[in-house]
């Protein structure tokens, strides 16, 4: 647990802080702003989040404006699996929504994501929660805003730690 600051909540839930979560950039643009949900419940999720952060920086396709805390919380849907670690990334990008989705799916594959069944355990889950203030529906592949995000504690609690961040009002 070295390098991480934990605040334990009820029922095994926790708020976790580290060097990169939360993170706030001082030089990001507000071009196309999106809110990305990041989740994991297999392997060392906190380490994977750090690797994801540096992979995104290296790729240069999106600019990380800010990250939230990491929230450890119970699964929903399929319950017979480990607790999840969730965080949010507020990003700026030149990518349009479908291009961003393809890039995020590429990252999931890079981190060995397997889609065994709905709500199955995963090494990495990346979702576009919001993109600008746009409503997008491309079949079942891309729905923005992400369905039910306003009812998910795994989005709402981390989002509280992004309040006041430059560019956030461009998506809310």
Task: Please tell me about this protein's structure.
The termini are far apart. The chain has one domain (5-170): 2-Layer Sandwich (Alpha-Beta Plaits). It has helices at 45-59, 97-110, 153-160; strands at residues 5-8, 14-17, 23-24, 32-40, 62-67, 70-73, 84-93, 125-131, 136-138, 142-144. By secondary structure, it is α+β, with helices and mostly antiparallel strands. 22% of the residues lie in helices and 30% in strands.
Summarize the structure.
The protein has 172 residues and is an alpha+beta fold. It has one domain (5-170): Alpha-Beta Plaits (2-Layer Sandwich). The chain contains 3 helices and 10 strands.
User: What average pLDDT do the residues reach?
Assistant: 91
Described by the principal axes of the CA atoms, the overall outline is globular
Overall CATH architecture: 2-Layer Sandwich
The CATH topology annotation reads as: Alpha-Beta Plaits
Instruction: Report the sheet-strand fraction.
Output: 25-35%
- Helix and strand sequence: EEEEHEEEHEEEH
Give descriptors for this structure.
172 residues; alpha+beta; Alpha-Beta Plaits; two-stranded antiparallel sheet; 3 helices
Summarize the helices and strands and which ones pair or pack:
Elements: E1 5-8, E2 14-17, E3 23-24, E4 32-40, H1 45-59, E5 62-67, E6 70-73, E7 84-93, H2 97-110, E8 125-131, E9 136-138, E10 142-144, H3 153-160
């Amino acid at each position: 647990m070295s390098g991480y600051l934990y605040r334990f909540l009820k029922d095994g839930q926790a708020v976790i802080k580290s060097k990169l979560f939360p993170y706030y950039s001082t030089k990001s643009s507000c071009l196309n702003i999106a809110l990305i949900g990041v989740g994991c419940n297999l392997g060392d999720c906190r380490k994977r989040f750090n690797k994801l952060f540096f992979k995104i920086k290296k790729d240069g396709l999106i600019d990380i404006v800010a990250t939230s805390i990491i929230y450890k919380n119970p699964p929903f849907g399929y319950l017979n699996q480990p607790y999840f670690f969730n965080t949010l990334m507020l990003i700026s990008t030149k990518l349009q929504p479908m291009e961003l989705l393809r890039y995020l799916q590429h990252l999931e594959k890079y981190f060995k994501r397997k889609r065994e069944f709905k709500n199955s355990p995963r090494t990495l889950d990346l979702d576009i929660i919001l993109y600008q203030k746009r409503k997008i529906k491309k079949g079942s592949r891309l729905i923005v805003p992400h369905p039910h995000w306003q009812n998910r504690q795994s989005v709402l609690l981390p989002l509280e730690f992004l309040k006041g961040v430059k560019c956030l009002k461009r998506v809310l």
